[in-house]
């Protein structure tokens, strides 16, 4: 996480400096969430998009208070490539408020992903009071030779695929970043990118105000994960692409998918020994995911009807998982002693991993299978979560 020193202003040719005074949002001069919203909408270059996800740059201001089925979005921008950036401005207070703002912006993304281009155009017209193709006109100010039909098609495709950049902008964003990133990762059913932007303000007495945006967290696109475990001697974790989710093609649910979700639903309500551990989240089609206190790392519990096996394993984004596994394997024997008996496995690359699995035929009922998975998850959390918290620090 980046840290910053004081900002100095050179006063004269003799080398005298004035130190800026930090000016928190929400306390002085009416600088509240609405003030921050209008500041960003009027000066889109303040948002460090290139650092978060350059595919959404440059930003053309579209509107503020865009009405959606989930509520109004503070500020909305669009790029000449037809990609939307949704910004929610929040003062940073307690962990509950942080979790609520993440849930809020995710709800906005889900709502907007159901729109057509005509829906977007109509909503923006209502928000701005302007007529015509407002999104295209806004983007064309940045790219005068922009083709309207190509822009409309690209925007419609981005809406359909959920290709949004979700930004939370606020003041003093420091604590709880890891848990927030995990929460975002667990909910990434659409193709969005996400960033946390701290907008630091510094006051130089009567001489003016300095605004310094900082990216303190962002997601990386995760296109591959380990989702299958072979049964039998020397089984291995298979690395496969979650292509349907990566393309945003998971929309409505078939009856089979609804049955699958219902099967996993009891596991999303389990309580862990660790009071800080969040509950599992269902992931189509055959597993639940448990966030760990390290960015891009989680536990997976799965059931493969085709192979007749179920299990729990440690995984994450490819680069992060490899780095973390290297550290964890330094105390591998001690970790294995704390995991369920038989929890020892290799990934398809041959690298050591942590996994536990069983044959579905070993269980007499679905409830018994779910109870076994819950017990495995709890032991994995107890063994790995404290170590991952230490690594994250």
UniProtKB/TrEMBL annotation:
* Coiled coil feature spans: 318-345
- One Gene Ontology MF term: nucleic acid binding
UniProt keywords (A-Z) are: Coiled coil
**Gene3D superfamilies linked:** 3.40.1350.10
Name of this chain's protein: DUF4268 domain-containing protein
């Amino acid at each position: 996480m980046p840290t910053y020193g004081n900002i100095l202003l050179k006063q004269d040719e003799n080398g005298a400096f004035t130190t800026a005074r930090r000016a928190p949002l929400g306390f002085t001069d009416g600088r509240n969430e609405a003030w921050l919203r209008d500041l960003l909408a009027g000066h889109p270059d303040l948002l460090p998009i290139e650092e978060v996800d350059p595919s959404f740059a440059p930003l053309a201001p579209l509107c503020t208070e865009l009405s959606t089925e989930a509520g109004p979005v503070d500020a909305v921008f669009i790029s000449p490539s037809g990609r939307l950036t949704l910004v929610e401005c929040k003062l940073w207070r307690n962990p509950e408020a942080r979790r609520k703002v993440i849930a809020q912006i995710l709800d906005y993304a889900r709502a907007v992903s159901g729109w057509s281009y005509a829906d977007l155009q109509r909503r923006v017209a209502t928000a701005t009071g302007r007529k015509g193709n407002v999104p295209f006109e806004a983007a064309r100010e940045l790219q005068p030779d922009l083709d309207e039909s190509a822009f409309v098609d690209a925007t419609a495709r981005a809406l359909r695929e959920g290709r949004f950049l979700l930004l939370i902008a606020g003041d003093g964003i420091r604590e709880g970043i890891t848990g927030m990133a995990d929460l975002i990762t667990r909910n990434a059913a659409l193709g969005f990118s996400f960033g946390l932007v701290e907008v630091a303000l510094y006051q130089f007495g009567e001489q003016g105000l300095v605004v310094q945006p900082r990216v303190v967290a962002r997601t990386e696109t995760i296109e591959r994960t380990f989702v299958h475990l072979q049964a039998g001697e020397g089984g291995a974790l298979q690395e496969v692409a979650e292509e349907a989710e990566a393309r945003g093609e998971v929309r409505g649910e078939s009856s089979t998918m609804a049955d699958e979700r219902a099967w996993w639903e009891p596991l999303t309500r389990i309580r862990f020994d660790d009071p800080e551990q969040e509950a599992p989240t269902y992931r189509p089609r055959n597993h639940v995911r448990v966030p760990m206190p390290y960015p891009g790392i989680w536990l997976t519990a799965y059931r493969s009807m085709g192979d007749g096996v179920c299990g729990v394993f440690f995984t994450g984004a490819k680069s992060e998982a490899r780095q973390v596994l290297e550290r964890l394997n330094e105390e591998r024997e001690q970790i294995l002693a704390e995991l369920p008996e038989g929890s020892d496995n290799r990934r398809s690359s041959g690298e050591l991993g942590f996994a536990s699995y069983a044959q579905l035929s070993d269980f007499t009922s679905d409830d018994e299978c779910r109870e076994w998975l819950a017990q495995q998850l709890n032991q994995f959390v107890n063994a790995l979560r404290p170590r991952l918290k230490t690594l994250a620090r």
